[in-house]
Structure formats: C-alpha cells, structure tokens
Amino acid sequence: MTDSAPATDRHQLPQEADQGHGHQGEPDEGGRPRGDGPRSVTTQGPTATAESGTRFPRPAGPQLGEGEQIPAQPGTAAMGRLAGAVERLQRELQHAHLQAEGRALIDLAKGILVERLGCSPAEAGRQLDTLADQAGLQVLELAADLVNQASRDRIAELARDFVATTTDPASPSTGLRLRSAEAGALAGDDADAVAQSILDNALRPLGARAVAIWAAHSNQSLTLAGSAGFSEHEPDRWRYVPPGVPTPARRALDHRDTSGFDTLAGAALSSIGQLELPGGRLVVPAGTGGRITGAMEICWAEPLPEQSQALLRQFEVLATLCATVLETRPAADDRTVGKDDPRFTELLDLVDGLDEACMVLQPLLDDAGTPVGFRIRHVNLGFVDFAGRPRNLIVGSRLLEAYPLAAEPGGLFEKVEHVVATGEPFRADRMYLAALVDGVPLGTEARVAISRSGDHVVVTWRLDDGTPRVASLLQHAQRLGRIGGFEEDLLTGEIAWNDTLYDLHGLPPTAPPIALEQLPAHVHPDDEHAIGRFLRTLLHHQRPASTAFRLQRADGIARHIRVVAEPVLDDTGRITAVRGAYQDVSAQHWTEVALAATRDQLVHTEQHAAERSRLALQLQHAIMPPSRGTQHLHNLSVAVRYRPAEKDHLVGGDWYDAVALPHGQILLCVGDVAGHGIEAATGMVALRNALRGLAATGAGPAQLLAWLNSVTHHLTDNVTATAVCGLYQPETRRLHWARAGHLPPVLLRDGKATTLPTIGGLLLGALDHTEYQEDEVQLQPGDTLMMYTDGLIERRDRSVADSLDNLLTIAQMPVAMPAGPQEPTDLERRLDLLLRYTNADTDDDTCLIGVRVG
What we know:
- The chain is α+β, with helices and mostly antiparallel strands.
- Helix content is about 35%, strand content about 25%.
- The chain folds into five domains: about 90-185, no CATH class; about 190-325, GAF domain (Beta-Lactamase, 2-Layer Sandwich); about 335-470, Beta-Lactamase; about 480-585, Beta-Lactamase, CATH 3.30.450; about 625-854, 4-Layer Sandwich (Phosphatase 2c, domain 1).
- The strands form six sheets. Strands 5-4-3-8-7-6 form a six-stranded antiparallel beta sheet. The chain has a six-stranded antiparallel beta sheet with strand order 19-20-29-28-25-26, with helices on one face.
- β9 and β10 (about 370-380) form a beta hairpin.
C-alpha cells in the first residue's frame, strides 16, 4: 500500500452497506419493511451464516441433507447477488480502514519532515515520495522509519532489534506493522476499531485470527471493551464476565503476567470465540504507569505457536496500545452522547433519581418518520432486569433484542408504540413481562408505567417478587455447574435446548437437538446399557431417572455427562413430555481419578516411609541401646542415655562412644549427623566406626577430627555432622578434647556446673581440609563430665545460650542416693534428671554421656 493508492472514506460507503443504526431507513424490529431503505427478508426457516459473519435468511421448508443439491427456486439468484454485494462491501470497508490507517501514518511522517526541514506540508509529501523512491522503499515503510527515529519509544526499539537480527529483506517490517497498528488505534472511533487495526496490521501476519480487549474492574469482573475477528453475535455473548468465572484473561490478570494456553479445552477454560477458534490463546495484561486496567487476548485456530522473546515484546507493545484505549476511550456514556441536548440531560437526571427500575427508549424511524423499533438508550441505577442480566447487556440493544417476547400481541412493544403515536401515558398494575435467556423463557408480572418525554420514551416497572434474583441465581448456577436444560414434547417431537446444552454436546446453535431415543448412538459403547436402563425407567415405568455416561461428541472430544430427567403426565396419566438437564461432570470425574491415584500413591509412600523408619530405628538401637548400666573403665564410671525422637519417622543420626583403647587411653565422643531417616542412621554408623579405627593410631583429638572430616567429605554421600571427641589419660586424670561445631561439654565440680571453654572447630564434611583446635582439662576425683547432643536442650522459643544456662541450673540440682545395689547409681539418676527437666521441644534424638572421675 502506497501513499498514492486510491482512498475510500470509511464514512462514505455505498447505500446498500448502511445498516442504519438508529437512523432513518432501518427495518422494522418485527420484520415489517418500512420506507424505501434497505429491507430485511422475513422467512420461517433458520438463518444461515456466511463466512464473513453476515447472517442471511435461509428459505423456509425442509432442510437439505449432506451432499444434497439446492433446487432451483425463485429468488435464489437474487440471494446470491445479495451475498456477493455484501462480501464486496465488506472488502471495500476493510480496504478503506487500512488506507485510513496508512494515511494517518504518512501524515505523521509528513509532520516530522515539516518540523525538521521547515517546509510546507505539500513539499513534505513530495520529499517523502522522493526519499522513498531513492531508498527503494514503499512510502509506508519510510514513514514508519521516520516515526521510529523521531519517537524513540518501545516500537522504535523493537524495530531496531528487528533490523539488527533479521536476515530476510523480504520479511515484513516489525516497525511498519506496529506503527500502522498504532496509527489505526489513534484514528479509531472506538475500541472495536482499535482491535480491528491491531488484528489487521500486527496480528494477522503472525497467524492470529482474532483479538479481544478486556477491561478489568475492581470487583474481579471483566467487560469486553473491543474485539475483532469473531462472528457477528459472539461479542454480545461475552460482553460481561462476572467475578469468579475462569477465563484466560482472568488467569493472566490474577498472575499479572503474560499467560499462554495451547488450547482452551486443554486448559479447561472458556472464552470468547471458543467454538470457532478452539486453538491457542495468549493473554497479555494491559496497563500504564504500573496500573493494570485490562488485558489483550490473542486467538489462534490452531494450538498456540511457539512464541519467541521478540514476539512477546511486540505483544506487550500492542497491549500498551490497548491500555491507552481503555484509558482514553471508555464506554460511551449517555450523558456524553447527549451533552448537546440539555432536555435529554435533564431527563437522565430525572430517571436516575427514581427508585423504580427505569429505562429510556429512543425510537428508530424510517424514511417516513414512523417508529420501526426502539433502542434502549439508558437505564438508571435502580434498574433490575427480571431475567437477571447485568445492565451493560441491556443498554444499547434494541427493545426486541433484549425482550423478544415483548412483541406478543398486547405486549410491551405494542404499548410503547401506542404511547409514541398518541402521547397518552400508559399504566398497568399487573402486566406480564418475558425474556428469552439461553433459549429458556423467563417471565414475571410487574406494575408498568410508560410515558413520552420529548423524543424519548420512559418505561418504569416495579417487580412484585424475587424473580430477577431467582433468574440470576439460576443462570449463574447453570453456567458454573455446566448444566444444560431440555424439554422434549413426545407428541409433536419438538425439542427445546438452551445454549449451554449445545456447548456440552459440541454442536452449533443451528444444529438440530438430539432426541432422547437417539442418545444411545452418541455414547460410549460400554455405557449403552446404562442409557437403556435410564430410558426404560423414564419412558416405560414413567418415573424420574438419572445416570452418568461418556458422551462421544462429533468433534472427537469425550465428556463425562450426568443426565437427570422426569416425565410430564397429562390428566389421564399418559406421558406427554420429558424435561431434565445434562451436566458436564468431566472435571469431577478426572478429579476423582486423580484423587484415587494420589491416595494409592500416598498409601504406598507411607508404607515405604514406615519401613525405612523401622529399619533406621533397628539399626540405631542395635548399635546404641536406649539405656545400659554403668561401665567402669579404669578410674572412670561411664553412664549413657539415649532418647529416641518422639516421632518414629524422625529417626536421626545421634551417636556416642566410650571405649578403652589399646594404648591405655579412653575414647569419649558424642556426635550428631544432620537429617533424619535411614541416610542419617547409616551416616552415623560410618562415622562412629571410622572414629574408633582412627583412635587406635594414638593421634590426638584434633587430628582425629581432621581425619574424620576428610572421611565425612569424601566417603559419605552429602553428609555433615557435629562431634565432640575426648581422650582421657587414667594415670594423670587429664582430658584432651576437641570439637567440630558441637556444643561444649559440661563439668560439674563441687556442686557447681560450668561449660568447658569454647574452642574453634568447623562441622564435619563442610570443607575438604580443615584444622581443629585442641584443649585439655585436669579432672579431679569426684568431678562429673557430661557430653550431649543438641536434642537435649534446644527449644524453638529460646536461644541456645538460654538453653545452656537452663542446663547448668538443672545439672546443679541435688539427686537422691541409691538405696540398694539394684537401683540406678547417682550418676544415672543425674542423667535421668537432665532428660526429665531440660524440656526440649524439637522432636530430635538425644545422646547423653556422664563420666564420674574416681
């Protein structure tokens, strides 16, 4: 497309394309042709939809089967010419839109040249053509480059990245596509025009088929601000999304990040265009200044293509355009539209002050000035739709679109026409109002008042019961529960389905419903018996029945469905109809399957964990029994206590040892391997046995811990541990000791308890090579030395220092002397006292050695 291409003003279209939204020449809402404008053809058959989304009446009569030829009928050629004309007009309209967007981009470039060169707009245009010709570029390409250089925004940055990375000179310019989309967004009259510009210029070249712009609200609801690429009536079905409805846009907004979904069915989400575009979705939150105001949803017919980082950045730029649209083009307000009409503004002020539900209707006139319909221009804050629909689905629609049953003789439409024609107000204490929601008629009785105010009609009603609330609850329950209702007349064969039921069966709304007797042909073969039993109970025994089955849909998707139905009997007891509901229980079914599998896996895991804990406990007890009598090693009395964790699955790696070595010294040690379970228990065994073997060399405690550190680092699997190692010389009563990250021993002398001086030493296994400090203490007859693991003192509610102070206090408490030789010694009693009163709460193992010097 170049600057010299022929232009068509989007606002000056051939007369046959004008659908007359709210202007003269509109067809009657009831199908009656008025005036000389374009007329709608009224037929009795269902309507067919062309690929372009324009709906054409289908001739009445029997419908054709697959492969049948359309017989020649009068008017068939005229219908073909009409379809061709509409398609041609749509192509021209799209071409006009693209040219308008291109002209906007070229005008921006001309403005830049005017500012830089100081020339006139005409000279800037000629200069732009000359520069494009010299550079071998299209005018649009050069215009986009100029705007990128001048703006230096994110689009310009993406364009530079594209030029730096692409090697294909024939590939479309990222800068041109984004600039054209931006130009169209700035020139667009509403969010739909902006969405169309983004789709045509930036997304279609990437394979996308449609785009939706969602506005987010503080109550977690969404409204469809603009869309492009969907069928004619699809946006109306998704104009409002209540809070709590799982959609791709809601998911992305909750995470505040770009979210991709391979397919809607795979993600178990619903969204606009889900039947015509069931493929991938990409949702980009849209916002400015750190505030998220909505989201842009991009739709593909196929599964979501792989998205590179460069493409994601382009989508973020487009989402920023959408955010600008949401900020600068809010939904049209009736007061803004009518600001030039003070009488209309006064009318809105009046109706907004009423407590009763009130709507303002605008007559739609034909060429002769006769009303052919009424558009709902405004509803007040007190307006309550008796069918439970939100206000934004009512405003802007025609009266017979929102309430088609109002066209019945003596109904609301006829009363409004009478008021407009005569000017006489109408009042009724009881008037029947009805609406079709999801194909189900919902009605109520209300007190209605109709009056004319200038060029508008004011309708108020007061509902006498809770019908709107019940209807709203029913709609939300059906939607959230994926419930579709049906009624089948067994005498006439007529079947009524609501929209949800078509979705459950994967059928378009124009498809014929499936009769109950045909249901066995659409279920899984294994479920045919269940369906047969259901039909016998319902039709033969004439009793309510229900069953669950697997529905085999035409699109190849299998759904788990539950059907509930009841017979309708006449006065003679003969069954005349069947009514009921289908519910999609696929999610519950797969949840139950997943829960069953998880439950089985959990049982297996628990059994495995219990077996590992049992083996670890047996290993621990085999090496270190929980208690044993006092040992006498030369002039030392040694008592030990081992307290397992309170929970069996927390079997730890605590260990101790007290053994006389070949060279006469006595090895005293306590250690704690990090962790729990079989790994900690086996690590404990390895370290305990290694230290025994190393101690036979006669090396000192510091050297022993250095060697044990190497063993821990190289010969065990990611094991770390703490330890205290002491070598006692019986002849001199001298104790040499070292520590590796462990708590210091406690010495009790003359009734006073103190800790040995803290010396340096890193825990075992942390580093490959490390050195340990060594200290010595001269023990005296009557001294008691206690070595322990942290399970003795640690508490979650106090520090280690406080726990040590508490341990020293308890160690100084007097103990009773044994009364007989069979009772525990005073050393054992002291260890039992420590275990009883230290009150640790970490559920860890505890090892405790008490040494009395004789």
